[in-house]
């Protein structure tokens, strides 16, 4: 009973942390971007007001399949929250005992599938273009994180998340495993793409295809997608911290949680600086970039299989 209550308690903390801090980090991104561009910018709490304003609006359905529109919005939101339960935020991941890397890969893939559903349900030219771009990105981008999890599982000798999120990716006979260094570089260079920020925001591309799959969304459904995007940044950064920097812990849960959030904030700042100083890539440039990273990731996978 005590262990069950502990799992429930930690699960609630993870969900609350992700839901409460994600809009704040989005506000930090806006503020830093404004400062770089010599603007005052909105307050860091503006994202909370934007979400609230969308949530209280009338829920209008204008797509060709309104039911799928609503389903896609809730699927995106629920999937991000489910992923948050698999991340060790200063404590063991709440559901790590009953989950493995394959489940995490499936959930991350669902995030992209929800965007595809959104584009199909809207049925407009821009939404279908955005859907096609999301599909191309999934084919070339999503395998990168999957390969990193498989490499960690190979080193750990288990697909259990508790083993994967324990620094296993660096557990090798070599002082610095080649596979660990290669996949770390791949993930860092693809972080911007994972979270859909400039220069890799080709799926939505506001000034090009009018937010693509979300062009026909408004009100609560748009709020769910916007909220999911904010939380996606948090969980992806959290996954990278858990996978590659699992050692900065004191054994004191509240302090470890603060350290975890601080590490995510560092990655958020890096994402912001890159976004504010680069122009959006064309879709063909993005795909070529992903393919190069994919080849390097495969090389890292081969190195891990060989024990390097």
Tell me what the structure shows.
- Helices cover about 70% and strands about 0% of the residues.
- The protein is mostly helical.
- Helix 2 (about 45-55) crosses helix 9 (about 220-245).
Topology diagram in text:
Elements: H1 2-36, H2 46-55, H3 66-84, H4 101-122, H5 125-156, H6 161-164, H7 178-194, H8 206-209, H9 219-244, H10 253-276, H11 283-305
- Shape call: globular
Regarding quaternary structure, what we see is single chain
Strand content: under 5%
Taking the sheet with the most strands, its summary is: none
Terminal Cα span? 43 Å
Mean pLDDT level = 84
Q: How many individual helices?
A: 11
Structural class: mainly alpha
Strand segment tally: 0
Tell me the series of helices and strands, N- to C-terminal: HHHHHHHHHHH
Query: How big is the Rg?
Result: 19 Å
The low-pLDDT segments are none
Describe, in short, the structure shown.
Helix content is 70%, strand content 0%. It has 308 residues and is an all-alpha fold.
Task: Give the tags.
308 residues, mainly alpha, 11 helices, 70% helix, 0% strand, globular
């Amino acid at each position: 009973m005590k262990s069950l209550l502990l799992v429930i308690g930690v699960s609630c903390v993870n969900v609350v942390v992700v839901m409460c801090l994600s809009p704040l980090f989005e506000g930090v991104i806006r503020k830093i971007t404004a400062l770089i561009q010599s603007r005052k910018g909105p307050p860091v709490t503006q994202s909370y007001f934007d979400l609230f304003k969308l949530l209280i609006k009338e829920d209008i359905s204008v797509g060709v399949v309104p039911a799928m529109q609503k389903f896609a919005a809730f699927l995106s939101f629920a999937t991000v929250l489910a992923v948050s339960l698999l991340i060790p935020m200063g404590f063991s991941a709440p559901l790590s005992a009953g989950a493995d890397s394959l489940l995490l890969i499936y959930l991350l893939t669902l995030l992209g599938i929800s965007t595809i559903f959104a584009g199909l349900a809207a049925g407009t030219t821009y939404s279908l273009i955005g859907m096609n771009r999301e599909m191309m990105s999934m084919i070339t981008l999503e395998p990168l994180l999957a390969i990193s999890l498989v490499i960690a599982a190979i080193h750990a000798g288990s697909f259990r998340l508790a083993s994967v999120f324990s620094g296993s990716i660096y557990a090798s006979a070599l002082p610095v495993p080649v596979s660990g260094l290669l996949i770390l570089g791949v993930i860092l260079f693809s972080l911007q793409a994972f979270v859909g920020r400039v220069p890799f925001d080709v799926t939505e591309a506001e000034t090009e295809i009018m937010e693509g799959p979300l062009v026909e969304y408004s009100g609560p459904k748009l709020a769910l997608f916007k909220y999911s995007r904010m939380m996606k940044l948090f969980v992806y950064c959290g996954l990278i911290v858990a996978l590659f920097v699992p050692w900065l812990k004191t054994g004191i849960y509240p302090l470890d949680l603060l350290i975890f959030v601080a590490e995510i904030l560092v990655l958020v700042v890096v994402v912001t600086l890159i976004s504010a100083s680069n122009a959006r890539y064309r879709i063909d440039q993005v795909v070529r970039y992903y393919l190069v990273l994919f080849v390097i990731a495969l090389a890292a996978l081969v190195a891990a299989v060989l024990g390097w």
